[in-house]
Specification:
Length: 167
């Protein structure tokens, strides 16, 4: 996969989103890399990861590939092809995603995603307290696609918050 730095992109093409969790950085980091947890929370509303399609190699250079299926209309599926380019436990996960072709194969069109994880004071529905702040940067994304992507992350992180509360 071709490499680029998110900092080198036009800021208008980078989605930045911040979410606060009442969980530890280790729990958040682990939820991205534990296959059993990942399939339970990742994906926008009405989409679920098909567990049997998940390949998760959580090392720099490793792959993360899976297919999501729409829960209302299962004929709709979305393949995801990513490669980890930098990992620092428990504070950083960075990927490059190869967008799929119309045939569902990885293309040469890449989107970067950086997930920064840090402990701090978090304001959540549980109140104010010690928690974790996750900041993600994703791009290049046209401005028209950024709201959809943000909504997808909001739904995913709401699912993750609920999952971690049960634990």
């Amino acid at each position: 996969m071709n490499q680029f730095e998110l900092e080198d992109l036009d800021p208008a093409e980078v989605l930045t989103y911040r979410h606060e969790f009442s969980a530890t950085p280790e729990e958040i980091y682990g939820a991205f890399l534990d296959p059993t947890l990942f399939v339970q929370w990742f994906g926008p509303k009405e989409w679920k990861v098909i567990p049997s399609t998940l390949t998760l190699e959580p090392v720099t250079g490793g792959r993360q590939q899976f297919v999501m299926r729409h829960t209302v209309n299962p004929k709709y599926q979305a393949p995801m092809y990513m490669r980890f380019i930098e990992m620092k436990e428990p504070s950083l996960i960075e990927y490059r995603e190869a967008l799929p072709t119309p045939q569902g194969k990885p293309s040469d069109t890449l989107v970067g995603l950086r997930i920064s994880i840090e402990s701090g004071t978090a304001v959540t529905e549980d109140g104010v307290g010690e928690g974790t702040i996750v900041t993600l940067a994703q791009g290049p994304l046209p401005e028209a696609a950024q709201e959809h992507s943000r909504e997808s992350w909001v739904g995913s992180f709401e699912s993750l918050s609920a999952l971690l509360k049960k634990a």
